[in-house]
Amino acid sequence: MTIFNLYIFDKFGTLLHYAEWNRTKKSGITREEEAKLTYGMLFSIKSFVSKISPHDPREGFLYYKTNRYALHYLETPSGLKFVLNTDTTAINVKELLQQMYAKVWVEFVVRDPLWTPGTVVTSELFQSKLDEFVRQSPIFGIRNI
């Protein structure tokens, strides 16, 4: 199992943090353009799911899967959006994203007196703790393709 990259957006679509680990193919566009496309796609998928779902979509959109990767999504009550791209065999990613939010984001960003909500996270401590958290997760690995 492999984790490729992570986007963290605020409720307004601002990219607060981006990290990548085992991503082998680049998109050919800037990170900012890629983030805008990703956020726009998420906005559209969430809207589509809420309108087309035959059931009450309480949890809404959680993930989608292609034959090459899976995109996992967690939205917090405050509107933060965590987007994690993995290989297709990754399991329990929702729980991983919830732990990432509680154990890394809240501890090292929300409680950082130097961070202003809505601004890019530049804390080296957060970046190192996030990297450590991801590398120790059971779904982190090197892709064998």
Automatic annotation (TrEMBL):
<dbReference type="GO" id="GO:0030008">
    <property type="term" value="C:TRAPP complex"/>
</dbReference>
<comment type="subunit">
    <text>Part of the multisubunit transport protein particle (TRAPP) complex. The heterodimer TRAPPC6B-TRAPPC3 interacts with TRAPPC1 likely providing a core for TRAPP complex formation.</text>
</comment>
<keyword id="KW-0931">ER-Golgi transport</keyword>
<dbReference type="InterPro" id="IPR011012">
    <property type="entry name" value="Longin-like_dom_sf"/>
</dbReference>
<dbReference type="GO" id="GO:0006888">
    <property type="term" value="P:endoplasmic reticulum to Golgi vesicle-mediated transport"/>
</dbReference>
<protein>
    <recommendedName>
        <fullName>Trafficking protein particle complex subunit</fullName>
    </recommendedName>
</protein>
<comment type="similarity">
    <text>Belongs to the TRAPP small subunits family. BET5 subfamily.</text>
</comment>
<dbReference type="Pfam" id="PF04099">
    <property type="entry name" value="Sybindin"/>
</dbReference>
<keyword id="KW-0813">Transport</keyword>
<keyword id="KW-0256">Endoplasmic reticulum</keyword>
<keyword id="KW-0333">Golgi apparatus</keyword>
<dbReference type="GO" id="GO:0005794">
    <property type="term" value="C:Golgi apparatus"/>
</dbReference>
<dbReference type="GO" id="GO:0005783">
    <property type="term" value="C:endoplasmic reticulum"/>
</dbReference>
<dbReference type="InterPro" id="IPR007233">
    <property type="entry name" value="TRAPPC"/>
</dbReference>
